[in-house]
């Protein structure tokens, strides 16, 4: 391994020297924002994406795109050409809980297979650092709130189970090959780049905030609220929304830790907001109503999911720049108003 390009200063992502990184799924939602964060501090970035869910317009200038599937050896060979990477940041995955309940074996095979192929290629090319985009779905129905890393893992969906399988595979890659990894188990990614360079554009869309915004803009049917009888203050489900730019920042901050050890972190704001609170904030920011209807609970939805990010904060100095719901909603609203057709190609982003 070549020496690490530099350590982060306390609370300062920009303290790292120039590095070189491969980002799989870098044309998707969280991946593209992480690419922006890397480029903003001067790093060289290569994106590997099959573009089935990503967008060309989400990739900033100066970033080389290799189009192809992560399981494709030739695509991996093209991606790893040109010099050794300091780390791989792996976002490419299937990620819809409901879809995984309909097609569980596809989720198991694709998510584990994709991760295994990328990790294997990284090891063979001498890159022994990897950051994986994981999920709060590992915890199923949590025993206590907020959810810390000590809680029992118990996925209740094939999606969550597939990510747990990925973590276990990385454990073996570390034991046998010395591949150090970070698994970031984040909660509800939301918002858009504050400078308007990237945003959220999925098709089909399943996330609450963009659905509420589009309902207010008249671009979609009324929003469906699933469940109004939860044991929460207003009866609707409570979730931890973390700004996508803050998620990207966390990915950069864990990189220096891989010099010494592998890590797993829960990643969220530590504050929960209900579905009704999100609707109310969209109405406040947008100045127009959010048409919505009330429906029954969805099977498998916990009443409350809120993260404890205390360990991440302590180890890296990470702290969200956009912790309040209004900032999250406002960046998402501004991007959608400026991009009424999203990126314009009508393909979903990961």
UniProtKB/TrEMBL annotation:
Required co-factors: NAD(+)
What EC designation does it have? 5.1.3.2
* Pathway it works in: Carbohydrate metabolism; galactose metabolism
**Residue intervals of the NAD-dependent epimerase/dehydratase domain:** 22-268
Kindly state which reaction or reactions the protein catalyses.
UDP-alpha-D-glucose = UDP-alpha-D-galactose
Q: Which UniProt keywords apply?
A: Carbohydrate metabolism, Isomerase, NAD
Molecular function (GO) terms for this protein are: UDP-glucose 4-epimerase activity
Q: Which Gene3D superfamilies match?
A: NAD(P)-binding Rossmann-like Domain, UDP-galactose 4-epimerase, domain 1
Q: Can you state the subunit structure given in the record?
A: Homodimer.
Report the sequence similarity comment from the record.
Belongs to the NAD(P)-dependent epimerase/dehydratase family.
Q: What is this protein called?
A: UDP-glucose 4-epimerase
Q: Which organism is it from?
A: Falsiroseomonas selenitidurans
> Upper taxonomic classification of the species?
Bacteria, Pseudomonadati, Pseudomonadota, Alphaproteobacteria, Acetobacterales
